[in-house]
Amino acid sequence: MIPPSYPPFNSYNPALDDTVLNGLGQLGHRVSMVLIWLVRSLFLHISLAKAQLTRRHNNGQTIMFIMSITSIVDP
Fold it and tell me: Is the pTM above the cut of 0.90?
């Protein structure tokens, strides 16, 4: 008699259940991490674009602002 390579359907296999649940949990975690990364990169893009626009508008004022901050931090 050749033993079947798959578990019979009436046998409950908790280890298989755990691996399926763990796989689903890891997949959900991965999807949420990708979504968070997408949102963060989008916000970073927007803020960088805004910073470039303001830098073009008032380059001198930005440099003076940075100089004043550095003088406060390290006089």
Answer: no
